[in-house]
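User: For documentation purposes, I need each entry recorded in a consistent format: the amino acid sequence on its own, followed directly by the corresponding structure tokens. There are two entries in this batch. Please keep commentary to a minimum and don't merge the entries.

Assistant: Recorded as requested. Entry 1:
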Amino acid sequence: MSPSKPDKPEFERSRSKKSSSPKGKSAYMRAVGLLAKRAHSSSELRRKLKSRHSDAEIEEALKKLEGQGFVDDAQFAAQRACLCRLDKAWGDRRIELDLQQRHQIKERDLAQALEAAEAEQPEQQALERIVQNWLRLRGEPSTVRDLKKLHDRCLRLGHRPDRVRSRLDAFFRHLDWDAD
């Protein structure tokens, strides 16, 4: 006697079990699942939960998570700012833009986050990392075009134009402007 084969493959059976549950996961449990993977701001959680839960359920879940200390926008902003400064060498402008637009962090939390990032690694050091990485990979910029690419990269990563120009000044002075 041969073993009987299930009608559906394993992945379809497990998926159908989840969807057959009448109520599904609560907004709170979904938020906990998201937070188990990585930290989220309250606006990120709200956006991700919106497709499956009502506004009232979401607000109740967020209030409970905030009360338990699992959601804290000020702490999230500081951690995100430090991470972006250390891993991506972002300047203050790029960090500020990310926290305001993507995570909708309040002004007071934003200022504290930028202070935390500066304490972790000064913005000037992050700029220096970008330039040193460029020099290691591509060498010293020898044309106006190369220097412009490096300059624009530093600006895209959120560093202030005056600091970028100051750091790249030696390259500007040694460049043959008639070569291009």
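Entry 2:
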Amino acid sequence: MVFLTEFPTVIQALLSSYSGIFTFSFLCCKVIVDVILIHCENPPLTTDTLICLGWREWVALPELGITRIKAKLDSGARTSALHAFEITPFEQNNVRKVRFHLQPNPRKIDIIQTCEALIVDQREVTDSGGHRELRWVIQTPIVIGNHSYPIDITLTSRASMRFRMLLGRTAFSGRYLIDVSRSYIAGKPPLAL
């Protein structure tokens, strides 16, 4: 291993011959390529690389059959939450699942949708009022604008809340920049996903 104090001597030795110049050039190019590859695999997060969303957005949860639902983006909440009631865990072919109902539109409470999903966990969650609740956790793809990726969602009653879905920071951290002065930047998901 060449130590930093010996580095100028090594450079002089490499540059003293034609093959040394070639070797030195090759090593410099290799270092530059390695730096570029590392940068491409882990690009720094800047406002240029993050997509902008508003404080509330239309989202879809296609595996749950939810083509459109309004979600509030909340960086103060760690986990995402979906309004659910009549939550029933069950087992099917040795796989733990949960069946639940939801009303995707708070203004049309007569529209009830039944959903089923795999259970990934059961966690104790503290809500904004400081109350602790044991919640079922599911994982399902979310669609925001043209982007789709899996997120963890806890199931809880949000009947008294304005938004039936809350997106916590783990759902958008490192992907989006939130502009709290704007709404629905990503647009509505298409009805047929």
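Summary note for entry 2:
Confidence is low (pLDDT under 50) at residues 31-40.
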